[in-house]
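Entry, Tuesday afternoon. Goal for today is a structural model of the target with flavin-adenine dinucleotide bound, before we commit to ordering more compound. Inputs were pasted exactly as handed over by J.K., no edits. I checked the ligand SMILES twice against the vendor sheet because last time a stereocentre got dropped in transcription.
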Amino acid sequence: MLPLPAAPAPAAPPRRVVICGGGVVGACTAYFLSTHASSPTVPTLVEKSSPACAASGKAGGFLALDWCDSTPALSALARASFDLHHRLAASLDGASAYGFRPVHTLSIYLSSEPEPASPHPLLPSWVNPSAPATPPRELGTPDTTAQVHPGLFTKAVLAASGAEVVIGEVERVIVRNGHVAGVVVKGRGVVDADAVVLAFGPWSARFEMIKEVFDVSGLKAHSIVLRPRESAKITPHALFLSYHPEPSAKMLEPEVYPRPTGEVYICGMTKDEEVPDDPLMITGEPDSIAMLHKIAGKVSTHLKRDEGAEVVAEQACYLPCTNDGMPVIGEMPGVKGCYVATGHSCWGILNAPATGAALAELILDGKAKIIDLAPFSPARFLKKRSRRGI
Ligand SMILES: Cc1cc2nc3c(=O)[nH]c(=O)nc-3n(C[C@H](O)[C@H](O)[C@H](O)COP(=O)(O)OP(=O)(O)OC[C@H]3O[C@@H](n4cnc5c(N)ncnc54)[C@H](O)[C@@H]3O)c2cc1C
């Protein structure tokens, strides 16, 4: 009998993993690499400014189980992430560490000319009874919607990962014989790596290696954070508003998220605009900030500055958006060991956990089990480009 050929030895999981970008996607990837069941690997994370300095620190932090259900791949990512958020909160004491809590969620069509009205039973007592022009609608219950403080969440998972954090700007990826070998960090030299994860959010568009494969654009969005004088009166109700500032004006869709810290976060007012090079140079535009204050005052007297609400922050940041509206998660075509994760648009805080968990499995086991990553592969853009002859 002929001897059977020996089975190829499984490739050893990479030991030196470098994550580039310290937003929520980079932080969650670090966490799931270091807590992997069979090959835990503590990565190095290189961040240009400071962890959670951009959208991951300035987002709303709203989480929903089933709001991505209309797209099957996104539904799987969101549902797995929603579940992981609950598990993370249980193991990292999310309620006190980063304000994790289930919330009620309402849709309110905001009246432009409020008239005296009696309170609707769904409406929390801190919302002006005259604020809704039509009866409020329930969009989510504490079983299906929740929240975190996004900056505290990002920093908590990063700290729990034990990753070494290097502050510096990643300039390029070093590739040898088609395999990643490290990254060049401006002013610091080379950090060697067997695997690299590019998690630059909207700055992905500026990174040559990514730009050659797909586009990422930044959508600027504004937010304010207020601390009402009687913050104990503000209940855990997230509000999705529709508002016409004038009859002929474009409809605005701001969102209001009370936080367990006693603060209330309000965001909206988006604008297509190129991402500035330095995350710390991002500032809000006065007109957009003024409109958010106007809306806050219409929603609740507690949110009016002249009723004692303290202004904690007035800010802006960028959503990372792709041309087909889907995140990009997977190995870069033609470069073994180089992975990318970006384009999470308005759901990056929700979807970062399953993104990080899937990437950790792909890097350490060779295949993601938690979700099917095929629909998120960066290779999908190569097919489109070659069809267009680019
Ligand atoms: C106003 C607003 C509200 C939002 N609300 C929600 C919400 O309620 N729920 C939800 O799920 N999502 C929400 N989002 C979306 C969410 O914030 C984003 O999808 C998510 O934060 C993107 O995370 P990221 O890690 O990909 O990118 P980012 O948070 O942008 O992080 C990228 C990081 O990369 C760093 N970087 C860039 N270039 C380099 C370089 N060359 N070298 C090293 N580091 C570099 C940057 O400094 C930055 O820290 C909101 C977004 C906005 C703007």
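The radius of gyration is 22 Å.
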